Amino acid sequence: MFFTDLMAHCTTRIECVFPDGKTSTGTGFFMTLCESGDRSVPVLVTNKHVVMGAQRGAFWLTLRKSGGTAPDIGNHHSFELPNFASHWHFHPSLDLAVMPINPLVEQSRSTGHEYFFAPLSTTLIATQADLADLPALMDIVLVGYPNGLWDKTNNQPLFRSGITATHPELEYNGKPEFLIDAACFNGSSGSPVFLAQIGRTMSRSKGVMIGPSVVKLLGVLYAGPMHMATGEIVAVPIGTRDIVVTAIPNNLGLVISAKELLDFEPILNYLATNQRRPGRNEACPCGSAKKYKDCHGALS
Ligand SMILES: [Zn+2]
Known about the structure:
6-stranded antiparallel beta barrel, Thrombin, subunit H, binds zinc ion, 9-stranded mixed β-sheet, single chain, 19 strands, mainly beta
Protein backbone atom coordinates (compact mmCIF):
# COMPACT_ATOMS: atom_id res chain seq x y z
CA MET A 1 0.00 0.00 0.00
CA PHE A 2 1.18 3.52 -0.71
CA PHE A 3 1.88 5.38 2.52
CA THR A 4 -0.96 7.82 2.00
CA ASP A 5 -3.31 4.83 1.65
CA LEU A 6 -2.11 3.66 5.06
CA MET A 7 -2.94 7.09 6.49
CA ALA A 8 -6.59 6.40 5.62
CA HIS A 9 -6.42 3.38 7.94
CA CYS A 10 -4.84 5.00 10.98
CA THR A 11 -8.03 6.67 12.21
CA THR A 12 -11.44 5.61 13.46
CA ARG A 13 -14.61 7.54 14.05
CA ILE A 14 -15.53 7.71 17.75
CA GLU A 15 -19.17 8.04 18.69
CA CYS A 16 -20.11 8.78 22.32
CA VAL A 17 -23.36 8.79 24.27
CA PHE A 18 -23.45 10.83 27.47
CA PRO A 19 -25.62 10.34 30.58
CA ASP A 20 -27.97 13.15 29.49
CA GLY A 21 -28.61 11.29 26.21
CA LYS A 22 -26.55 13.66 24.10
CA THR A 23 -24.27 12.16 21.48
CA SER A 24 -21.04 13.41 19.98
CA THR A 25 -18.46 12.29 17.47
CA GLY A 26 -14.72 12.71 17.37
CA THR A 27 -11.66 11.28 15.70
CA GLY A 28 -9.37 8.66 17.16
CA PHE A 29 -6.15 7.36 15.69
CA PHE A 30 -4.13 4.23 16.33
CA MET A 31 -0.58 4.40 17.63
CA THR A 32 1.98 2.06 19.05
CA LEU A 33 3.58 3.50 22.17
CA CYS A 34 6.24 1.95 24.46
CA GLU A 35 8.06 0.49 21.44
CA SER A 36 10.96 -1.65 22.63
CA GLY A 37 12.32 -4.44 20.43
CA ASP A 38 9.31 -6.33 19.10
CA ARG A 39 7.17 -5.23 22.02
CA SER A 40 4.76 -2.27 21.88
CA VAL A 41 1.44 -1.12 23.30
CA PRO A 42 -1.17 -0.32 20.65
CA VAL A 43 -3.52 2.46 21.72
CA LEU A 44 -6.30 4.58 20.37
CA VAL A 45 -5.60 8.30 20.82
CA THR A 46 -8.11 11.11 20.96
CA ASN A 47 -8.88 14.24 22.94
CA LYS A 48 -9.92 14.08 26.57
CA HIS A 49 -12.96 16.23 25.80
CA VAL A 50 -14.20 13.70 23.21
CA VAL A 51 -14.51 10.78 25.63
CA MET A 52 -14.56 12.20 29.17
CA GLY A 53 -17.91 11.51 30.84
CA ALA A 54 -19.13 9.26 28.00
CA GLN A 55 -21.41 6.47 29.17
CA ARG A 56 -21.18 4.46 25.98
CA GLY A 57 -18.85 4.73 23.04
CA ALA A 58 -18.16 3.06 19.74
CA PHE A 59 -15.46 2.94 17.10
CA TRP A 60 -14.97 0.93 13.93
CA LEU A 61 -12.35 -1.42 12.57
CA THR A 62 -12.06 -2.78 9.03
CA LEU A 63 -11.56 -6.53 8.72
CA ARG A 64 -8.49 -8.01 7.09
CA LYS A 65 -8.99 -10.06 3.93
CA SER A 66 -9.00 -13.71 4.90
CA GLY A 67 -5.59 -15.28 4.46
CA GLY A 68 -4.07 -11.98 3.37
CA THR A 69 -2.70 -8.75 4.71
CA ALA A 70 -4.91 -6.27 2.81
CA PRO A 71 -7.98 -4.55 4.21
CA ASP A 72 -11.34 -5.98 3.21
CA ILE A 73 -12.79 -2.57 2.36
CA GLY A 74 -16.50 -2.37 3.11
CA ASN A 75 -16.33 -5.13 5.70
CA HIS A 76 -16.00 -3.58 9.15
CA HIS A 77 -17.18 -4.07 12.71
CA SER A 78 -18.16 -1.59 15.34
CA PHE A 79 -16.79 -1.98 18.84
CA GLU A 80 -19.30 -0.72 21.37
CA LEU A 81 -18.11 -0.31 24.92
CA PRO A 82 -20.14 0.42 28.07
CA ASN A 83 -18.59 2.74 30.68
CA PHE A 84 -16.63 4.17 27.80
CA ALA A 85 -14.79 6.89 29.71
CA SER A 86 -13.41 4.33 32.18
CA HIS A 87 -11.37 2.63 29.44
CA TRP A 88 -9.24 5.74 28.83
CA HIS A 89 -6.17 7.25 30.42
CA PHE A 90 -6.28 11.02 30.60
CA HIS A 91 -3.40 13.46 30.35
CA PRO A 92 -3.24 15.52 33.56
CA SER A 93 -2.93 18.88 31.84
CA LEU A 94 -3.44 18.49 28.08
CA ASP A 95 -6.54 17.58 26.08
CA LEU A 96 -5.28 14.06 25.28
CA ALA A 97 -6.50 10.56 26.11
CA VAL A 98 -5.34 7.06 25.17
CA MET A 99 -7.00 3.65 25.39
CA PRO A 100 -5.04 0.39 25.07
CA ILE A 101 -6.76 -1.68 22.38
CA ASN A 102 -4.96 -5.01 22.71
CA PRO A 103 -7.64 -6.57 24.95
CA LEU A 104 -10.32 -5.83 22.33
CA VAL A 105 -8.25 -7.00 19.39
CA GLU A 106 -7.23 -10.20 21.22
CA GLN A 107 -10.82 -10.91 22.16
CA SER A 108 -11.89 -10.55 18.52
CA ARG A 109 -9.00 -12.69 17.34
CA SER A 110 -10.24 -15.46 19.59
CA THR A 111 -13.53 -15.36 17.67
CA GLY A 112 -11.68 -15.62 14.36
CA HIS A 113 -11.70 -11.96 13.32
CA GLU A 114 -8.54 -10.26 12.10
CA TYR A 115 -8.55 -6.51 11.61
CA PHE A 116 -6.65 -4.16 9.37
CA PHE A 117 -5.53 -0.87 10.81
CA ALA A 118 -2.33 1.09 10.48
CA PRO A 119 -1.05 2.30 13.87
CA LEU A 120 1.42 5.15 13.75
CA SER A 121 4.83 4.35 15.16
CA THR A 122 6.52 6.70 17.60
CA THR A 123 9.26 6.98 14.95
CA LEU A 124 6.78 9.07 12.94
CA ILE A 125 6.71 11.73 15.67
CA ALA A 126 8.63 14.77 14.47
CA THR A 127 11.76 15.05 16.61
CA GLN A 128 13.18 18.30 17.92
CA ALA A 129 15.81 18.11 15.13
CA ASP A 130 13.08 17.55 12.49
CA LEU A 131 11.16 20.57 13.76
CA ALA A 132 14.25 22.77 13.97
CA ASP A 133 14.95 22.03 10.29
CA LEU A 134 11.43 22.91 9.11
CA PRO A 135 10.90 26.25 7.41
CA ALA A 136 7.77 28.22 8.24
CA LEU A 137 4.62 27.70 6.14
CA MET A 138 4.57 23.93 5.63
CA ASP A 139 1.85 21.84 4.02
CA ILE A 140 -0.10 19.72 6.48
CA VAL A 141 -2.80 17.07 6.20
CA LEU A 142 -5.34 16.14 8.82
CA VAL A 143 -7.32 12.93 8.79
CA GLY A 144 -10.64 12.61 10.52
CA TYR A 145 -14.38 13.03 10.59
CA PRO A 146 -15.31 16.73 10.36
CA ASN A 147 -18.85 17.23 11.63
CA GLY A 148 -18.98 13.46 12.06
CA LEU A 149 -18.85 13.01 8.27
CA TRP A 150 -17.41 9.75 6.99
CA ASP A 151 -17.79 7.12 4.32
CA LYS A 152 -19.65 4.65 6.51
CA THR A 153 -19.98 2.12 3.68
CA ASN A 154 -16.21 1.81 3.42
CA ASN A 155 -15.20 2.96 6.93
CA GLN A 156 -13.08 5.74 5.52
CA PRO A 157 -12.12 9.11 7.01
CA LEU A 158 -11.79 12.41 5.18
CA PHE A 159 -8.47 14.03 4.38
CA ARG A 160 -8.17 17.79 4.65
CA SER A 161 -5.18 19.92 3.92
CA GLY A 162 -3.78 23.17 5.18
CA ILE A 163 -0.61 24.90 6.26
CA THR A 164 1.21 25.49 9.50
CA ALA A 165 0.00 28.86 10.78
CA THR A 166 2.62 29.06 13.52
CA HIS A 167 5.89 27.15 13.66
CA PRO A 168 5.45 23.68 15.24
CA GLU A 169 8.83 24.00 16.96
CA LEU A 170 7.63 26.99 18.97
CA GLU A 171 5.30 26.71 21.94
CA TYR A 172 2.38 28.89 20.94
CA ASN A 173 1.73 31.29 23.81
CA GLY A 174 3.91 29.16 26.06
CA LYS A 175 1.94 25.91 25.62
CA PRO A 176 3.13 22.73 23.82
CA GLU A 177 0.93 23.45 20.82
CA PHE A 178 0.84 25.30 17.50
CA LEU A 179 -1.75 26.62 15.08
CA ILE A 180 -2.73 25.32 11.67
CA ASP A 181 -4.70 27.04 8.96
CA ALA A 182 -7.14 24.38 7.77
CA ALA A 183 -10.88 23.85 7.79
CA CYS A 184 -11.31 22.44 11.29
CA PHE A 185 -14.73 21.38 12.47
CA ASN A 186 -16.25 19.58 15.42
CA GLY A 187 -15.68 15.88 14.89
CA SER A 188 -12.17 16.65 13.70
CA SER A 189 -11.18 16.77 17.38
CA GLY A 190 -8.50 14.15 17.91
CA SER A 191 -7.37 14.21 14.27
CA PRO A 192 -3.71 13.44 13.65
CA VAL A 193 -1.97 16.33 11.92
CA PHE A 194 0.78 15.29 9.53
CA LEU A 195 3.56 17.14 7.84
CA ALA A 196 2.96 15.80 4.31
CA GLN A 197 5.67 16.43 1.76
CA ILE A 198 5.01 14.15 -1.17
CA GLY A 199 7.53 14.05 -3.99
CA ARG A 200 9.11 17.27 -2.79
CA THR A 201 10.68 18.18 0.53
CA MET A 202 11.63 21.51 2.05
CA SER A 203 14.07 21.98 4.89
CA ARG A 204 16.19 24.80 6.26
CA SER A 205 19.37 22.74 5.79
CA LYS A 206 18.78 21.36 2.29
CA GLY A 207 16.30 23.77 0.75
CA VAL A 208 13.86 22.34 -1.79
CA MET A 209 14.48 18.79 -3.00
CA ILE A 210 12.44 17.23 -5.77
CA GLY A 211 11.78 13.52 -5.47
CA PRO A 212 11.81 12.44 -1.84
CA SER A 213 8.72 12.33 0.35
CA VAL A 214 8.47 12.90 4.08
CA VAL A 215 5.53 12.28 6.38
CA LYS A 216 5.80 13.15 10.06
CA LEU A 217 3.25 13.28 12.85
CA LEU A 218 3.20 16.87 14.06
CA GLY A 219 0.38 16.69 16.56
CA VAL A 220 -3.23 16.19 17.56
CA LEU A 221 -5.94 18.71 16.71
CA TYR A 222 -7.98 19.60 19.78
CA ALA A 223 -9.58 22.98 19.50
CA GLY A 224 -10.14 26.00 17.43
CA PRO A 225 -12.54 28.83 17.06
CA MET A 226 -15.06 26.28 15.69
CA HIS A 227 -15.86 25.23 19.21
CA MET A 228 -17.11 28.66 20.06
CA ALA A 229 -19.15 28.76 16.87
CA THR A 230 -21.25 25.85 18.11
CA GLY A 231 -22.78 28.02 20.77
CA GLU A 232 -20.31 28.66 23.54
CA ILE A 233 -20.74 32.30 24.42
CA VAL A 234 -17.79 34.32 25.57
CA ALA A 235 -18.16 37.55 27.52
CA VAL A 236 -15.56 40.01 26.33
CA PRO A 237 -14.94 43.04 28.50
CA ILE A 238 -14.69 46.18 26.38
CA GLY A 239 -14.22 49.42 28.22
CA THR A 240 -16.56 49.45 31.17
CA ARG A 241 -19.26 47.29 29.59
CA ASP A 242 -19.37 43.53 29.03
CA ILE A 243 -20.62 42.60 25.59
CA VAL A 244 -21.58 39.08 24.61
CA VAL A 245 -20.19 37.76 21.37
CA THR A 246 -20.37 34.46 19.53
CA ALA A 247 -17.13 33.71 17.75
CA ILE A 248 -17.17 32.95 14.05
CA PRO A 249 -15.03 30.11 12.71
CA ASN A 250 -11.91 31.32 10.99
CA ASN A 251 -10.42 27.99 9.89
CA LEU A 252 -7.69 27.93 12.48
CA GLY A 253 -7.00 24.89 14.61
CA LEU A 254 -4.96 24.36 17.77
CA VAL A 255 -2.73 21.30 17.65
CA ILE A 256 -1.02 19.63 20.64
CA SER A 257 2.58 18.71 19.82
CA ALA A 258 2.97 15.03 18.99
CA LYS A 259 5.84 14.51 21.44
CA GLU A 260 3.36 14.97 24.29
CA LEU A 261 1.92 11.54 23.42
CA LEU A 262 5.07 9.99 24.87
CA ASP A 263 3.92 11.26 28.25
CA PHE A 264 1.56 8.25 28.45
CA GLU A 265 4.36 5.69 28.19
CA PRO A 266 5.14 5.36 31.95
CA ILE A 267 1.45 4.68 32.67
CA LEU A 268 1.18 2.14 29.85
CA ASN A 269 4.39 0.43 30.97
CA TYR A 270 3.00 0.25 34.50
CA LEU A 271 -0.21 -1.28 33.15
CA ALA A 272 1.70 -3.83 31.06
CA THR A 273 3.82 -4.86 34.05
CA ASN A 274 1.14 -4.90 36.73
CA GLN A 275 -1.99 -5.69 34.70
CA ARG A 276 -3.86 -3.04 36.66
CA ARG A 277 -4.02 0.72 37.08
CA PRO A 278 -2.13 2.27 40.00
CA GLY A 279 -4.07 2.69 43.26
CA ARG A 280 -5.68 6.12 43.61
CA ASN A 281 -3.28 7.10 46.40
CA GLU A 282 -0.17 5.47 44.93
CA ALA A 283 2.59 7.62 43.44
CA CYS A 284 1.88 8.30 39.76
CA PRO A 285 4.21 6.14 37.61
CA CYS A 286 5.05 9.20 35.47
CA GLY A 287 7.48 10.37 38.14
CA SER A 288 5.71 13.62 38.92
CA ALA A 289 5.80 12.83 42.69
CA LYS A 290 2.04 13.43 42.76
CA LYS A 291 -0.53 10.84 43.76
CA TYR A 292 -2.00 8.95 40.78
CA LYS A 293 -5.45 10.40 41.52
CA ASP A 294 -4.02 13.92 41.23
CA CYS A 295 -2.01 13.24 38.08
CA HIS A 296 -2.63 10.72 35.27
CA GLY A 297 -5.50 9.21 37.26
CA ALA A 298 -7.39 12.50 37.64
CA LEU A 299 -10.99 12.07 36.54
CA SER A 300 -11.58 15.61 35.35
ZN1 LIG B 1 1.31 11.27 36.32
